Amino acid sequence: MLAVIFLATILGIQAHPFDELHQHVDDHVEDYVEALRQWVAVESDSSDVTKRADLHRMMDMTAEKLKGLGGEVEMVDIGFQELPDGTTIPLPKVVTAQIGKDSTKHTICVYGHVDVQPAKKEDGWATDPYNLTDINGNLYGRGASDNKAPVLAWIHAVEAYQALNLDLPVNVKFVIEGMEETGSNGLDTMIVAKRDTFFSNVDYIIISDCGWLSRRPALTYGTRGNCYFFAEVEGPKQDLHSGVYGGTVIEPMTDLIGILDSLISPSGNILVPGIREAVAPFSDEEWRMYQDIEFDMEAFKSKIGIDQLMYNNKVDLLAHRWRHPTVSIHGIEGAFSASGSKTVIPAKVTGKFSIRQVPDMDPAMVKKQVTEYLHSVFAKRKSPNKLKVTMIIGAKPWLADTKHALYEAGKAAVKRVFQMEPDLIREGGTIPIARTFQDVTGKSIIMLPIGGFDDGLHSQNEKMSRYNYIEGTKLFISYLHEVAEIKK
Ligand SMILES: [Zn+2]
């Protein structure tokens, strides 16, 4: 085969043996599915402490699989998790690996996770969530798409080069964690601690923990952050009977509903002064990018079961989903919410809401704006009750430059495997790790998803299609080559 490559190079034909690599992938489809079956069979639910032994086993299996690539594999102890009752249990170790140490090559670092969201057959799964089941080319199982198949696809991509005795175009590092679904407990500290060692020679970080928007492959270049608030209104020293006391006291719940209603207009305008003004302007170029994205409004409506959306054109809808802030009111603690008709006046209620963050908002500023605004609205009510506003989470948004060489490499790899241009998309949700990697290591990051738009992450009947899994592996193979082409 080397002679073939040599000849091809002389003739100026494709110098990279993609055909052989892709053929290798096609020849090993059943092995890849079997590997996924073994991983999905482990109930690595990070939110359920009774499953912690399974989670530890999952990290061991990940380390074993990475050792198969012949690199240096380490299981990094990240300490303990404190449970609500004050006891502590060990966190699952983070698995790091390093394959290749050629200083003339770029070094990429692939981030992924092998813990999963909870799943039970009784939740409404059509199949056993921990027994990978193939129905019409879709592989159903918890964690199949989020994030076990993408992690395996990266490992198989490296393996393919090795199996064909081809030089790996870049050095590859892995950081695979087991607490992503519950907030990546312990990972930030580990990244900070390894900034000057493990991460010091990493050029680029690649995250494949998201999905496409349609059947068209996508590159993801932004995520929203989130500021989560508690607004507590406290009145009488205990709950009261509305028949006995109603009409004599200013009720905390009425105050709370009043201030919550001042956050956002019925048409979706955030009413907190300063927030809309902080949002980076929507450029003409961005507008054109959004116009090019493949997105089916009708399918989106039917998926969530509603007739009318906030906006009735694609550009406005996607822009408000990804690059504008929004307020969501999540719940009221202390309010009566059981069935029946209890005539209670709750003494203390806590409204919970969050504001999705986008560039150029700053969580510290948002905290100040929201707190001052709610207190001013509350003051106008002249209520004797007490208001306390606290910000519980302040996660920043993340945004990459789609003209960066990493994205150009992504576009080239997508074109080679799928013969089309990728959609350039953002995520409306928060992937805090992207921002942490960027802030701590200062490296450029790309999100290169292979999951399908309808994979049902965190939901019943999660799946990964064979098509996305296998073609996704080829995409990673091509991407390794394209990244190597970036000028040092
Ligand atoms: Zn995930």
Could you walk me through the main structural features you see in this protein, from its secondary elements to its overall organization?
There is one protein chain. With 488 residues, the chain is of the alpha+beta class. It has 2 domains: 17-223 and 397-484, Zn peptidases (Aminopeptidase, 3-Layer(aba) Sandwich); 225-280 and 323-395, Alpha-Beta Plaits. Helix content is 36%, strand content 21%. The chain is built from 16 helices and 20 strands. It has helices spanning 2-10, 18-27, 29-40, 52-67, 144-163, 187-193, 242-245, 252-260, 275-278, 284-292, 297-304, 314-322, 363-380, 405-418, 432-441, 466-484, and strands at residues 72-76, 80-82, 88-90, 94-99, 107-113, 133-135, 138-140, 171-177, 204-207, 218-223, 225-234, 240-241, 327-333, 344-345, 348-357, 386-395, 398-399, 423-427, 444-447, 463-465. The strands form 6 sheets. The chain has a 6-stranded mixed β-sheet, sandwiched between helices. It has a 4-stranded antiparallel β-sheet with strand order 13-15-11-16. A hairpin with a 2-residue loop joins strand 6 and strand 7. The protein is globular and about 85 Å long. It binds zinc ion. Zinc ion is lined by residues 113, 146-147, 180, 209. Residues 113, 146-147, 180, 209 line the site of zinc ion (ZN). It holds the Pfam family M20_dimer. It comes from Coilia grayii (Gray's grenadier anchovy). Mn(2+) 2 binds at residues 113, 146, 209. Residues 222-378 form the Peptidase M20 dimerisation domain. Its cofactor is Mn(2+).
